[in-house]
């Protein structure tokens, strides 16, 4: 199966849900990224800053780069000039640094807040209480060069579809509450628009639970080495 046929198959599956595909290109070669770009897919997800920066320099300028992995504060400056969306914001400290680097580059950087939904110790993210604390912190309202566009979450690493569905359901419920109550919107910095959840093994389940963005790698390129 070619990259192009896998991408068009997945896009066709997602279409009834209006869910958009982010092609997760981490560990893939420049040749594979160029082949992806040639299909017209422009949203690329990477989880390591150095790898993204190296690839960004070699790919056409119309690629929209998504930071999907954990981001260290001291690395923000390298992606601030071009990043399209940072999915993995899990602290006010990180958000403050993103704001500072966005300002330096004369731009506004779109971000998602990463929520912890898995039954695992290893996953990053905020719980609901921490999310509200962040949004209600007086210093949050001063971050004029960031925009919160929604939430991101990663389900547990399990083949138990019932458990994954439960975790997606819990994130969707929080997202809908934020939308309904317009939480944080009075700051002018928040727009509850995007819900980033779902990967190769569960993107259709995620789409059925209201995901607007799925992050898919191995279903397109094969298993990572
Ligand atoms: C690697 C990765 C993905 C894609 O995983 P696949 O199983 O290859 O689809 C999605 N989201 C994040 C945060 C990742 O690190």
Written overview of the protein:
The chain has about 220 residues and is of the alpha/beta class. About 40% of the residues lie in helices and about 20% in strands. It has a single domain, classed as TIM Barrel. Strand 2, helix 3 and strand 3 form a beta-alpha-beta unit. The two termini are about 20 Å apart. The model has no long low-confidence stretch (mean pLDDT about 95). The site of pyridoxal-5'-phosphate (PLP) has 13 residues, from strand 8 and helix 9. Pyridoxal 5'-phosphate (PLP)-binding protein, which is involved in PLP homeostasis. Belongs to the pyridoxal phosphate-binding protein YggS/PROSC family. It comes from Aquirufa avitistagni. This is Pyridoxal phosphate homeostasis protein.
The major pleated sheet works out as:
8 strands, parallel
Report the average pLDDT across residues.
97
**Principal-axes shape call:** globular
Number of strands: 8
- Give me the CATH fold name: TIM Barrel
Parts with pLDDT < 50 across at least 5 consecutive residues: none
Give the bound compounds: pyridoxal-5'-phosphate
Rg (C-alpha, Å): 17 Å
Secondary-structure element order, N to C: HEHEHEHEHEHEHEHEH
What is the topology, as strand order, of the major beta sheet? 7-6-5-4-3-2-1-8
Helix proportion: 25-40%
Annotation field: number of helices: 9
Which structural class matches the secondary elements? alpha/beta
Distance between the termini: 18 Å
Counted up, domains total 1
CATH superfamily: Alanine racemase
Q: From the 3D coordinates, which CATH architecture would you assign? A: Alpha-Beta Barrel
Strand content: 15-25%
Please give the CATH class.
Alpha Beta
């Amino acid at each position: 199966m070619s990259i192009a046929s896998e991408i068009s198959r997945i896009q066709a599956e997602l279409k009834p849900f209006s869910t958009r595909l982010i092609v997760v290109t981490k560990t893939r070669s420049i040749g594979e990224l160029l082949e992806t770009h040639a299909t017209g897919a422009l949203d690329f997800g990477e989880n390591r800053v150095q790898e993204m920066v190296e690839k960004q320099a070699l790919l056409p300028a119309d690629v929209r780069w998504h930071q999907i992995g954990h981001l260290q504060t001291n690395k923000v400056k390298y992606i601030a000039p071009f990043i399209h969306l940072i999915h993995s914001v899990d602290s006010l400290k990180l958000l403050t640094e993103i704001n500072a680097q966005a300002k330096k580059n004369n731009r506004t950087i779109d971000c998602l807040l990463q929520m912890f939904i898995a039954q695992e110790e290893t996953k990053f993210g905020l719980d609901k209480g921490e999310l509200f604390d962040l949004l209600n912190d007086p210093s949050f309202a001063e971050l004029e060069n960031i925009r919160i566009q929604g939430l991101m979450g990663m389900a547990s690493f399990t083949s138990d579809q019932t458990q994954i569905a439960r975790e997606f359901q819990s994130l969707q419920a929080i997202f809908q509450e934020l939308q309904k109550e317009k939480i944080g919107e009075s700051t002018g910095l928040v727009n509850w628009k995007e819900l980033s959840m779902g990967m190769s093994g569960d993107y259709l389940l995620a789409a059925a639970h209201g995901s607007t963005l799925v992050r898919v790698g191995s279903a397109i390129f094969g298993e990572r080495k």
